[in-house]
Design goal:
Subcellular location: Cell outer membrane
InterPro entries: Beta-barrel_TonB_sf
Shape: globular
Helix content: under 10%
Structural class: mainly beta
Distance between the termini: 126 Å
Keywords: Cell outer membrane, Membrane
Organism: Belliella aquatica
Protein name: TonB-dependent receptor
Number of strands: 28
Length: 555
């Protein structure tokens, strides 16, 4: 029904419209026929009209008229204030196991009836101090000449300690040593001496030392002062007591420049068969300034000495000598050095007898006057492994000491002095370290003496060669192989009333250490492995091939 009504409405509208157009067309002119087509299946569609969305307006925030009040009540606690005790962080650093063993004992034995006993113990984890004690005995109860007639023993007992404070440390050392030697410089093939018993000489030495020094060695001001006491006596009439005071202080203005003063005081009271009630006093002061910058090093100072030895033609007890040293490294591989220095070398009876244990009664004790020593040379390091040095030293000395056979006892030696000695010393040194398993140290010296009074430089070598090798093929094995050679030693044979040159000394030394565990290790030592009849002093050959083996225990 609705469709029919719509159809009739459209028909009516079209008829009316047609009439209108006909009327309009008739008004303009010609009447035209019109044809209308009515389609029932046609669908009328209208475009979609977008909807208009409007945002909701923001309403004003209502304000409250209420009041809010907060009540704060204080609370008090009767508690003491917190005490803060700052402490250094206790970080657990890894430590070597060897550091855990404060003591060790070494026991060994070898031919020539040679026992060795050595022990040491340290208290080094007891706060601000450490204490160490040591004892050692080594003996050769038979020797190269007449068995017991050439015996030799050495015993040492010592105690040392250090007390650490905030800025300085106090250190001390005391020890006692007993050394026994026999005068075996006789002919064992002489039938008249078949039952000969040699005389012994026992050295008893007591040393006491105490001092103070600053802890921080990298500070601007550094100092060290110590007091030394030495009491010495032998089996005969030689006695010498010494009181010594040593001190040194230096001040660094900056990393390149420093000034320093070294001082030494030595007061000795020696006595022997031919002298007693002597006071030998010696004081040496060495102020200097040192400057170092890159490869340049310069030291300028003076040696100021007072000594009261009595000698002929002596002008004064007071001496002043220059002390100048300089070096310049063009690079690590090559550099040059030079120096000029005068000094008075302190010599006591103890120094002489430690150099020659077969020294007899002396007529006089004298210091060596070093008028000057001038030196020049070159040195350097190649590839950070090989170091070398070669140079020449030229010096002029007075009262240089030598050893000569005694005119009254052929078994003993006397001191002999030369008033004017010229010495030229040629020296060469080489050092090489390859990784961690090999190290080499070698040096050679050649000496040329020009003497004023003596016929020769008695019992001083013309040349010396020292060759040291250290091998570490594995972590537990350490090997030392050393060769010491010496030649051109001139002695005076009073029996023949002539001088003679002693045979060249060759001493091949070998030492092996093998660590079984961290606490146990074994060692073996071999001396004079070439079995040479070496004579450092006339008529005193040393032991032949001599070996010692033993065990070391750490605890």
């Amino acid at each position: 029904m609705i469709n029919k009504q719509l159809i009739f409405r459209y028909i009516f509208i079209l008829i009316c419209t047609g009439l209108t157009f006909d009327s309009f067309a008739q008004q303009r002119g010609e009447v035209q026929d019109q044809e209308f087509v009515i389609r029932k299946d046609r669908v009328l569609t209208l475009p979609i009209q977008p909807r208009n969305f409007e945002r909701i307006p923001v309403l004003p925030t209502p304000k409250s008229t209420a009041n809010f009040n907060y009540l704060v009540k204080p609370f008090f606690f009767a508690l003491p204030p917190l005490e803060i005790a700052p402490e250094a962080s206790q970080k657990q650093f890894p430590r070597n196991r060897e550091e855990l063993f404060p003591g060790f004992v070494r026991l060994g034995f070898g031919n020539y009836t040679s026992p060795i006993v050595e022990a040491r113990y340290n208290l080094w984890e007891e706060g601000d101090y450490n204490i160490g004690a040591k004892v050692k005995h080594e003996g050769f109860y038979t020797g190269p000449v007449g068995a017991e007639n050439s015996a030799e023993t050495h015993t040492l007992v010592g105690l040392d300690g250090t007390l650490f404070k905030d800025y300085f440390q106090l250190y001390g050392h005391v020890d006692y040593s007993r050394d026994m030697y026999n005068f075996y410089g006789y002919d064992p093939e002489n039938i008249l001496l078949e039952d000969y018993v040699t005389s012994q000489n026992i050295f008893n030495t007591f040393k006491l030392r105490g001092g103070i020094s600053n802890l921080e060695k990298m500070s601007d001001l550094n100092y060290d002062a110590n007091l030394n006491v030495r009491l010495f006596g032998d089996s005969f009439m030689a006695v010498e007591n010494e009181l010594g005071i040593n001190g040194e202080v230096d001040f660094w203005f900056n990393e390149k420049l420093r000034a320093a003063v070294d001082a030494k005081l030595s007061l000795t009271t020696p006595s022997d068969e031919f002298y007693r009630d002597i006071n030998r006093n010696y004081f040496r002061l060495n102020p200097f300034v040192e400057y170092r910058k890159e490869g340049l090093g310069v030291k300028a100072g003076a040696n100021i000495i007072f000594e009261n030895d009595i000698t002929t033609n002596k002008k004064s007890d007071f001496h002043v000598y220059p002390d100048i040293q300089a070096s310049y490294m063009l690079d690590d591989a090559f550099g040059i050095y030079a120096g000029f220095e005068g000094d008075v070398l302190r010599k006591t009876y103890y120094d002489f007898v430690m150099e020659n244990q077969f020294l007899g009664p002396s007529d006089q004790l004298l210091n060596t006057i070093q008028n000057f020593v001038a030196k020049v040379g070159l040195k350097g390091t190649v590839n950070g492994e090989l170091t070398y040095e070669a140079g020449v030293n030229v010096g002029k000395f007075a009262n240089m000491h030598f050893f000569n056979t005694s005119p009254t006892d052929s078994l003993k030696f006397n001191l002999a002095y030369d008033s004017d000695t010229r010495l030229i010393n040629y020296v060469a040194k080489v050092g090489w370290e390859y990784q961690d398993w090999y190290k080499l140290n070698a040096s050679i010296n050649y000496y040329q003496y020009t003497l004023n009074e003596l016929a020769a430089a008695f019992h001083r070598p013309e040349w010396e060669l020292n060759l040291g090798n250290t091998f570490k093929p594995m972590e537990k094995l350490l090997i030392h192989a050393n060769l010491n050679a010496m030649g051109g030693i001139v002695s005076f044979n009073r029996g023949l009333d002539t001088t003679e040159v002693l045979p060249t000394i060759l001493d091949l030394h070998l030492k092996i250490d093998y660590k079984i565990t961290d606490q146990f290790s074994v060692f073996a030592v071999g001396n004079n492995l070439l079995n040479q009849s070496n004579q450092r002093f006339l008529n005193y050959p040393v032991r032949g091939i001599q070996g010692i083996g033993g065990l070391t225990f750490k605890f």
